């Protein structure tokens, strides 16, 4: 581990300096906008999950808890730790929340503290940025490919940062909060496709919340709990990673977007929800522009901020689903005349986030490349209901999964007609085999298409409308749009939790 910190500081202390010192006046308009979009998207996903099987499990589990804190979309009053755990799990339950799911670990402790304390909109947004910066920079150092889930591990540190900031902890207490949270982190990728995957978010949110509360009460941790010989970085991170990217170094924020979208050139319209075809042909010369190469080798490209999903599935599906919807939007493409599909990817999906090659239910389908293609093939769309067991049964009855092959071909781009304009990027090709023997191929690079600001808001209204009504959803969105000027987030929260 290359250490570029001052000799007198540990990594936890450097992070604490950043968290404590960050002020709203340090945030430019783009940073504020991205933090606000995280709040809007995360709360929308949590409210929409209230009818899910995961929500029913949480409601039964939390029935014995008592306290003043409420659950998103579920009502009831529980203690703060139960509320934080449940709300984090709810935000992640549909797999519709941002990549890398930091809203699911940052919003729950903030909601609990807003119910207990006076918190302004500026304070909330500043804490969200602090949590994102700490969590994203540590996530970028992780040794990807190991079976630990970054949301469950680093997510606890992001939650601790948010909680410490909103509680007003000092530098020493904040460093202890991070160190305590480091010992409370965990999450296994083997559990993707089960209730436990969403619980990674809830548990990480609760771990960071509890760690900061304990630090406020006098709890301590080793100053080198993060970067010591036996610390967090040694346990989870790439030995070649450098702490040079610790928060506050260089004065840049990772929460902002780069100017050029990674899906530039896609025929899909990112400013609509559901995603629509723009009517244009894909511009293959532009696909993949704007990707910092050093962030493409493992894990999410965190230097360009959170990615907002157009489909309720693991983000590893986005490239393949982008290719699928590029085909579906072509006016001369008839999915009824498709004999089968071939998914071509550069790495074995069984080793990644979409490793459920043969899903056994709709929930596992969220982590399966073939399942997403099958759902779109069946109905021409991918929605929340696409991953319910009734749809899974329809897909199985139609035998669609049996007609979708996944081929791992690391050198496929060397012989292909198209190449991404940046090296070492993630890519996917989707080949449709038509009944007449012809083939159609669509491409997507990196994270595929993702929602822009307009799409995020349309998504929020679509997800919350069924529960709040169209007028209620629109009123809540208006409240959230104006949180930067809110003097009391408690009033806004009343509409969210109501």
Features:
single chain, 498 residues, alpha+beta, four-stranded mixed beta sheet, two-stranded antiparallel sheet, 17 helices, 8% strand, globular
Describe this structure in words.
This protein is α+β, with helices and mostly antiparallel strands and 498 residues long. It is built from 17 helices and eight strands. Strands 6-5-7-8 form a four-stranded mixed beta sheet. A hairpin with a 3-residue loop joins strand 1 and strand 2. Helix 2 crosses helix 5, helix 2 crosses helix 16 and helix 6 packs antiparallel against helix 7. The longest helix is centred in the last third of the chain and has 29 residues. It is globular and about 70 Å long. The chain starts with 10 loop residues before the first helix and ends with a helix. About 2% of the residues have low confidence.
What integer is the average pLDDT? 89
Secondary-structure-based class equals alpha+beta
N-to-C CA distance: 48 Å
- What are the low-pLDDT stretches, counting only 5+ consecutive residues below 50? 290-299
What would you report as the Rg, rounded to the nearest angstrom?
A: 22 Å
SSE string, helix = H, strand = E? HHHEEHHHHHHHEEHEHHHEHEEHH
- Total of DSSP H or I helical runs spanning 4+ residues: 17
Q: How would a crystallographer describe the biggest sheet? A: 4 strands, mixed
Q: Order of strands across the biggest sheet?
A: 6-5-7-8
Count of DSSP E strands? 8
Mass-distribution shape: globular
Level of helix content? 40-55%
In terms of DSSP E residues, the strand content is 5-15%
